What we know:
By secondary structure, the chain is mostly helical. The protein has one domain. Helices cover 75% and strands 0% of the residues. It contains five helices and no strands. Helix 1 (3-17) crosses helix 3 and helix 3 packs antiparallel against helix 5. The longest helix has 17 residues, at 43-59. The protein is globular.
Amino acid sequence: MTFDEVYKSISGLSAYDNGCIDSGIRDETLRARLKVYVHSLSTDERRLMLSRVLRELFLSDEALSQGYGWEDAQSLCRWFEDQFGVG
């Protein structure tokens, strides 16, 4: 998967799981594909990928100006661990 695919998948799936049924993505095939991808990464690759996703979604200057912050990043980390069994 490309970074853009991973980013959009994590963003959409986590949004749906957290109650954003209009803007989120409900797609179990995509969730399964993402899980296979996540588990194919080494620990370092997974760490870098998740860090980049967190930065883009919640910690960029643009995201911070929209009210997102470290709490949102922490929430996504918990979701990621719950979904994929890895941190």
